[in-house]
Amino acid sequence: MNVWIRYDGPFIGLLLIVFAVLWPQALLAQQPLSLKQAIALALERNEDILIAKTDYDAARARVREAVADALPNISANALYIRNIQRPVFFFPNPITGEQTAFRVGNINAFSATVNIQQPLYQAGKVGRALKVAKLFRRFSEEGYRATRGDVILATIDAYYQVLLAQKLIKVNRQTYEQALEHLKNARLLFQQGQVSEFDTLRAFVETVNLQPLVLSAENRYHIALNNLSDIIDAPSDQPLTLTDSLVYRPEPLPSLEDAFATAMQKRPELNQITLEAEMRKQNIGIVRANILPKLYLNGSWQTQAQSDKFDAGPQGFKNSISASVQLSVPIFDGLRTYAQIDQARAEYRKAIYNLEKLKEQIRLQLKSLLFSLGEVEKSIEAQQQNMAQARRALELANLRYREGQSTYLDLGDARVALNQAQSNYYQFVYNHHVLKAQLYRAMGVLSQKFEFNQ
Questions:
Q1: How do residues 101-146 score in pLDDT, each as one tens digit?
Q2: What's the pLDDT score for residue 2?
Q3: Which of 245, 325, 339, 441 is found 20 to 30 A from 80 (Cα to Cα)?
């Protein structure tokens, strides 16, 4: 019989797979990384976080800008005039009635002026602008919180994707090793005449077909690891090993009403829309102020001198001081301001509609996440029992095959069933972790859950 000529292939494949799996793991052991450490790195280095922080800094500067509108505006000017020909004034001769020209002034004229303007009344425009600036600062704070939540959620997802890929590598390797062991048993039973040549060929084909599954799982692991490295801004070739485990940790879920009540207080996007609506409301008053009177207090100090030389002349510098109250009353601007008021009111109504729409979306999102979490928890419990049954079925199938009471197809089906049960279990555990993080993100408390409250 020539059945065994090429049976060294699976053994070489196993060596390659073991090398491919163990060698990277040996390297990764150099840099341990917990989930909280990964989140801390992402919050420190992620570009989206840095952009959001820049927006927050800009919002704080806008508050200072709004305060400046209520403070005095002080300006200083200096002027030098060189009269190449001195100015001429014409006066009528009281006797003849003819115009007579008189040149006045000196060749050089020096002057310096300091002007002060203090707004006294601007129809509430300054106060509202300051309030809008403070609201915008809070708006940016909520945007920063929202970005932090997104980055934390993305890090959790990426972290558990790596853990899931590691588990799938282990499951597929175990399946491959079991198939390899069954191949040895099939060859032994064939030599004893207890099984047919078909069983040995079938065992060989199945063993070879399992090699790509292990390599595919290994490739998925490296892709997930690169994704995690990108999120935490670590070099893709930096050795990392994850210290947390993909284990199922059941915990009580909040009711829909409790989750929704928490989201109404903590969800940053909802707070942003609420703040936007208030800013739109204040903007109506700011625009309306453009058609109302405004009152200013003005003050001026001036010193000047003239001379035919580059000095202050015999009289020296002479000072003058003046003060005035200015009333500015808009009369007609082509109804432009009234159109702007209508636009501001429409934007305010739009913000209110968006606020109500977002509330409904949050409620639906929370309801969906809670339902999905409940479904996943039931699936995990079912898969735990299913794995135990699948392991027992594989043991019985292996025993029956050795005793010649079943075919290799029965044994292969039992092995595939165990592989599928284990893969499903780890997939459901991964889903549970990610869905739980999504629920906390939807409630606006994801940062608190991981003790990152900054």
A1: 777 888 899 999 999 998 888 888 888 888 888 888 888 889 989 9
A2: 37
A3: 325
| Overall domain count for the chain | 2
Domain assignment present for residue 1? The answer is no
123: left (phi over 0), alpha (psi -120 to 50) or beta: left
Among 77, 79, 75, smallest CA distance to 306 is for 79
> CB of 98 within 8 A of CB of 131?
no
Residues 218 and 240 in one domain: yes
**Pair of tokens at residue 127:** 């106060």
Could you tell me if 180 and 103 lie in one domain?
no
- Are 156 and 248 part of one and the same domain? yes
Same domain, 112 and 250: no
Output DSSP code: residue 253. P
Asked whether residue 238 falls in the same domain as residue 280, the answer is: yes
Looking at the structure, tell me whether residues 214 and 251 fall in a common domain. Answer: yes
Least confidently predicted of 168-177, 261-270, 405-414: 405-414
∠ at Cα 433 (429, 434), nearest 5°? Answer: 115
Asked if residue 396 belongs to a domain, the reply is yes
- Give the pLDDT of residue 395: 77
Is residue 215, in this structure, part of any structural domain at all? yes
Does the pLDDT value for residue 28 go beyond 50? no
Judge contact between 83 and 105, C-beta under 8 A. Answer: yes
**Its pTM surpasses 0.70:** yes
CA distance to 147, 347, 365, per residue, from 351 (Å):
21, 6, 21
Treating both helix axes as pointing N-terminal to C-terminal, what angle do 268-288 and 256-266 enclose, rounded to 10 degrees? 40
* Chosen domain end from 329, 352, 381: 329
Closest among 194, 311, 211, 247 to 35, alpha carbons compared: 247
What whole-number percentage of the chain has pLDDT above 90?
Answer: 34
307 and 248 within one domain = no
**Residue 6 pLDDT exceeds 50:** no
3-state secondary structure of 297: strand
Band of pLDDT at residue 323, cut at 50, 70 and 90: very high
Give residue 91's pLDDT.
79
What is the extent of the structural domain holding 305?
72-121+293-329
Judge if 152 and 41 occupy the same domain: yes
Mean pLDDT over 304-327 rounds to: 88
